[in-house]
Amino acid sequence: MADHAFHRPGPLKQANKAHKTGRHRSKGAIDNAQKGKIGLKAISHKHKQQQRKEQRRNQMNQLRKNKRDEVLEQKRKLGGQNTAPFLVCLLPMHEQIDPKSALAILQSCDSDLVVENSPNGVVYMNLPRFKQRFAFVSPPVGRGNELIALDYLKVCDTTLLLTSAAFGEDEIFDRWGQRIFNMMSAQGIPTPVVALMDMESINPKRRTATKQAAQKIISKLLPEEKIMQLDTASEGLNVMRRIGGQKKRILHNVANRPHLFGDVVEFKPSSDPSEDLGTLEVTGFLRGQSLNVNGLVHIPGLGDFQLSQVVAPPDPYKLDKSRDGENAEVRLLDRSDPLKRTSLQSENIPDPMDAEQTWPTEEEIAASQQETKKMKLVKRVPKGYSEYQAAWIPDVEEVENPGSNDDMSGDEDDDDDDDEEDDEDFMSCDNKSFEDEYEKRDSDTEEFQDSVSVASEAAVNDEKYDQQMDFQEECETLKQLQQARTDQLWPDEIDTPLDVPAHERFQKYRGLESFRTSPWDAKENLPADYARIYQFQNFDRTKRRILNEAKEYEGVLPGFYVTLHVINVPESRWNAFRSAQLTDNIIVYGMLPHEHQMCIMNVVLQRMPDSEVPLKSKEQLIIQCGYRRFVVNPIYSQHTNGDKHKFERYFRPYETVCATFYAPIQFPPSAVLAFKVNPDSTLALVARGRLLSCNPDRIVLKRVVLSGHPMRINRKSASIRYMFFYKEDVEYFKPVKLRTKCGRLGHIKESLGTHGHMKCYFDGQLRSYDTAFMYLYKRVFPKWTYEECLVRTAEHERQHASANRRTSQQIAMEE
């Protein structure tokens, strides 16, 4: 019977209905139970109409036609006589290339080409052959002008990358070209076109090989682009045809908002001489979406402002001006309503009496002061010290109440204490010893040179090199590398202090049963700065609604040549802005609703390949997010899918983290660039990424790991020491789980003695080389260090200088 093969029914076997056990219900009972409900099974098996082949073909043709009409409509929005011209950015990839030479070739490409120049240097070209018109702008080239070039590229439709064959086959980009290409790749390149110049200077036999070598290099950076020559008028005409006919690459952050590249800028001071305000009139072609005159506008370097009105002067660059008439008047397109204008208030003003808060009376304040005076100074003296030896030990500050609940300032101080505790294990780098070592080497070198009659040229070069070297910066970088390396080898592990009980040192930390599933209230123990920010109930839903409303809004339509009247612009700030800017052009962005209000911004960052120094959390960075640029001190956390995210002390190379900081609201998608100031005051791109969300409920937990070593090992129990040094700490942390390096789980059973030894039970026998860990967590928040990158006026400079002077005086007093 064991070898008997059972019969298996096939697919054609008759399947009878299963018998319904129990008493059958009547039709009335079934109707009463349903009460008008329709079964889900009946809905899911709804009859679907089958389309015939001709119907399916007609449907596909209709979809294809709609898509083609949409693409044609997008193309017709640019380059026509009644729309905004193609805005092209001439960007040399070599500092030696003059963009005016390429512009001269393009101006001579056709005999019917009409060229006009704007007061601020924008070159307009009307090409009747293609029935299109173009506008060419060229940012300043050179080290230190990268941010200006990035601002130009944000609003341009096409980027004309200029390179030369005269520098060699491998020198398509120089150092400047590589820097700016990395930056604009992180920001987004608007429809690139690569032009190769100076091919006439190459031997005719080598021209094909030179172009192929250049194409090979360009294909690695821009795989879809084909390099074009730009030396003759016919080649210039081909470039113009390529710019006007190729498919445009859409940068959604700029395309979702109205923006304007200013051709004519005029500042009109207020009639009242006592007010330091005026009206800024910016004229240019409006692009992107429709402009809401009651909304706010942002000018990089100046800030956020309101509009009074938008007027439409006659287009001076139109080829056929007879339609508008020679004496065309300025038309008023829209005027803002003072009652409907968006307020410039960016922070919420919290009510100190909100949530039933009560202010302490004078008697309570006096009683608390008396208690503070009665607090004694605690001095821990090692056993066996005499009174004379104990006098040399500095006094310890007042002991705080372990159960006190501090605000944001307390959290920041505790974070700094944690960082100091972590830094104790790192190798110390003494600046004085570092410099003494170099001075000793210099003196030895001088003695050796005195004994030699003729000094070598190499010694002179070494001395010049040492003079240009910054020993302080070298020492700080070395120390930072050592600390990051130690944190990477032993992540989050710190030593339990000997002089302070662990339940006081880690009073704000807690243990979690599971980091992934254990609950953590997002509204618990929030800092005081959270009362100054705004929050959405559902950020994603609000983003979709606002972006859809911006596309459907019928305000000042894009494509018009308009003048924006920006009101309440400080005259001192405008004068400082004009003196600091290298160009006369400014860019105006129309802001979406709520984009001037402060919130917690979360961005995903990835380190650049050429950036090798680790970035410490809360280190100052210059962030460019969309159309804004500001200075913040972000905190880093892991980019994971859970509701809790582990705090990262360092942002190491080749890693991806989530940075959190205070900043104005902005709706994604937005490219994010992170810069760090070099010792020579230049900017280095250290990370790139994108905007994730503006959500204050993102929970960032800082972890500390306390380690202990087994002293006696039994079958499932072990005696652990060096994790705590007080019996009270063992009783306090008894509910927290223990984990070992080899993967064992356990818990504290009881305390052994009074010096922190404890008996622990595990789910298996420990190894002699195993180590027990206890994970503790605390929520951390970013510091309010937001400062927008605006031009500094004389008043700002005086305040900054006084702040620096106070800081230097404090340092001198401490020394």
From TrEMBL:
Biased composition (Basic and acidic residues): 67-76, 317-340, 432-443
Region (Disordered): 1-76, 316-358, 392-462
Biased composition annotated in UniProt, kind: Acidic residues: 408-427
Major place of residence: nucleus
UniProt superkingdom: Eukaryota
GO BP annotations listed: endonucleolytic cleavage of tricistronic rRNA transcript (SSU-rRNA, 5.8S rRNA, LSU-rRNA); maturation of SSU-rRNA from tricistronic rRNA transcript (SSU-rRNA, 5.8S rRNA, LSU-rRNA)
Domain Bms1-type G positions: 84-249
Gene Ontology CC terms: nucleolus; preribosome, small subunit precursor
GO molecular function, one term: GTP binding
Compositional bias segments (type: Basic residues): 16-27
Keyword field: Nucleus, Ribosome biogenesis
Cellular compartments annotated: Nucleus, Nucleolus
Assigned protein family: Belongs to the TRAFAC class translation factor GTPase superfamily. Bms1-like GTPase family. TSR1 subfamily.
Function noted in UniProt: Required during maturation of the 40S ribosomal subunit in the nucleolus.
Name by which UniProt lists this protein: Pre-rRNA-processing protein TSR1 homolog
